[in-house]
Specification:
Layout: H1 28-35, H2 41-50, H3 62-85
Helix pairs in contact: 2-3
Length: about 90
Amino acid sequence: MKVKLLSFSRLSVLECLPSLNTAMSTSHNMLEAIYGPQFDNHLLDELQEVFPPRDPTPTDTVSLIMYTAGQQSVIDWLTKRMENER
């Protein structure tokens, strides 16, 4: 018994199928599940309160100085980003 192979049409040019080309609207609530809650001034104020700028002392280790500098650089970056979004 011979089996006939089914031939599927092949696309010579890559194209989006109509079912994949539908517009999809997203709301902030949907994105919040992926990206987390929106960042606001209250959260930035809390970060500045919890991680205040700190001057290094002679007894601080290099790793502690780098760690606290990293905290401040993140807060500075978030502040600049929020200012640019306004």
